[in-house]
Amino acid sequence: MPKKKGINVGVIGFGTVGTGTVKILRENAGILSRRLGFPVTLKRVVDKDLKTNRGVKLPKGMLTSKVDAVLEDPEIDIVVELIGGIRPAKDFILRAIKNGKHVVTANKALLAEKGNEIFAAAQRQGVRLGLEASVAGGIPIIKVIREGLVANWILSVYGIINGTANYILTKMTDEGAEFSNVLKEAQRLGYAEADPTFDVEGVDSAHKLAILASLAFGIPLSYEKVYCEGITKITPMDIEFAGELGYKIKLLAIAKATGGGVELRVHPTMLPVDRLISKVDGVFNAVYVEGDAVGETLYYGRGAGDMPTGSAIVADIADIARGIVAGADRPAPAFGESSLKIRKIEDISSMYYFRFSALDRPGVLSKISGILGKNNISIASVIQKGRRVGEAVPLVVLTHMARERDIRRAVKQIDSLPVVADRAFFIRVEGTEG
Q1: Superfamily of domain 141-302
Q2: Distance CA 218, CA 338 (A)
Q3: What does the alpha-carbon distance between residue 200 and residue 224 come to, in Å, rounded to a whole number?
Q4: CA distances from 3 to 125, 129, 328 (A)
Q5: pLDDT averaged over the chain?
Q6: What burial letters (b/e) apply to 344-366, b meaning 16+ CB within 10 Å?
Q7: For the chain, how big is the Rg over CA atoms in Å?
Q8: Number of H-type helices and E-type strands within the chain
Q9: I want to staple 122 with a disulfide (CB 3.0 to 4.6 A). Which of 45, 46, 177, 332 is the partner?
Q10: Contacting residues for 341 by C-beta, under 8 A, at least 6 apart
Q11: pLDDT above 70: residue 389
């Protein structure tokens, strides 16, 4: 079979990311051709909306509303899916694979929830699936784990991988503002969607974590087993107390190999202020990866946007194109070969930050500390602000390492005390004990 002299690409979805991808393919075609040694040609763009001006000039007839113009065109080698969501994106990808086309996608929700099926189909058909843009936008973290750190046992992956949540927490930290006020500002500036649930409740981060963990540990894509908790309950008071204790609060996605299993969790986390990842602010993303040989590494950049995400998509296109032209196509890698189990959140161990609303009376702290002690929880430090005898005041406790199961049992017991005015609130703490 003669080697191909060039590669044709079809893009499905001409929204924000699709526009960035098309811009790069059109405007940087000369650069790509020189670096690859052959042309990569954008042949067709599919979208329902044929009228909106995206600021990209396309040749007449390139933009169409008919998806078959991409999926059924034998001259198109690589299909780029950028419509998002589960359906009809999944159907389009499976049809492309069935027709022997390689696929590139930025659809983290689809990959996290249906990826095992899609990867199995790609393997059977002997085609490649590019997913670099599905996690952390312009940060090439998929390539890092798959290729750069291929010689390592991955020990842990920590990520700030949702720019909206990170922007909100950064503004709350810098300005002492309430969550609801910062969210409205983020929506006004376009950093948050009209319905921000996926971002602020950790769902978007959980989708991305499922992909990273599968690559890092060889486990099946396990989104349904990711423990997920958002940032809506974080208050300026928590941020202030965290600062006094030497920490910053971030929405962190954590995948960690421990105790013969893998922890998969997304939740607000207190990180020591001197950690590099703690300094990642605003809409930026960062992913920390620890390997047994390389040690600690950190990757930083823009996690979303038309051009950063488009850059990641075109990088996948170029990578797949090289293989096609060289006649050395590599099918999608197998997922889910590891027998590592996903650990339940109750089984993890961490340090913890507690905020209680307790009556300002003698003996209250001893009652709370007594319950913690009975549940194998040791106190590292305590902060109490203000004195209002007989009234409720905030009481903050930082613990040494403890097991989540014990923490939850203790919270239930403390909440039942008559001297506690409101339900206890806790945040997990990552760091080393002093």
Answers
A1: Dihydrodipicolinate Reductase; domain 2 (3.30.360.10)
A2: 5
A3: 18
A4: 19, 21, 10
A5: 92
A6: ebeebbbbbbbbbebbbeeebbe
A7: 24
A8: 14, 18
A9: 332
A10: 260, 261, 262
A11: no
CA distance linking residue 346 with residue 299, whole number of Å: 30
Helix, strand, coil distribution of the chain in percent, nearest 5: 40, 25, 35
Q: Where are the domains of the chain?
A: 7-137+306-326, 141-302, 345-429
- Structurally, at CATH architecture level, domain 7-137+306-326 sits in 3-Layer(aba) Sandwich (3.40)
CB atoms within 10 A of CB 19: 22
Residues 6+ apart with CB under 8 A from 71: 10, 79, 92, 95, 96, 99, 101
Place of tokens 């946007």: 305
Neighbours of 283 (CB within 10 A): 19
Spatial CB neighbours of 50, under 8 Å, sequence gap ≥ 6: 63, 64, 65
Give yes or no for residue 434 having a pLDDT over 70: no
d(CA 332, CA 288): 25
* Percent of the chain whose pLDDT exceeds 90: 83
Upper half-sphere CA count for residue 148 (Cβ side, 13 Å): 14
Residue 367 has pLDDT above 50, yes or no: yes
- Whether 256 is catalytic is no
pLDDT in tens, 39-56: 999 999 999 999 999 999
DSSP 295-350: EEEEEEEE--SHHHHHHHHHHHHHHHHHHHHHT---PPPP-----PEEPPGGG-EE
Helix axes 364-374, 404-415, angle to 10 degrees: 150
CATH number of the structural domain 345-429: 3.30.70.260
Q: Give residue 51's Cα distance to chain centre.
A: 33
Q: What is the dihedral of CA 94, 99, 102, 104, to 10 degrees?
A: -40
Assign 332 a pLDDT band (cuts: 50, 70, 90): low
Length of the chain in terms of residues written: 434
- Whose CA is closest to 86, among 75, 78, 94? 94
How many percent of the chain have pLDDT more than 70? 96
Active-site residue identified among 90, 114, 171, 208: 208
CA-CA distances (angstroms) from residue 402 to 223, 239, 407? 26, 22, 7
What is the per-residue pLDDT for 3? 62
Q: Which two tokens stand for residue 82?
A: 């950028």
Contact between 395 and 358 (Cβ < 8 Å): yes
Degrees, nearest 5: CA angle 416-417-422 = 75
Strands (E), 259-302: 261-272, 284-291, 295-302
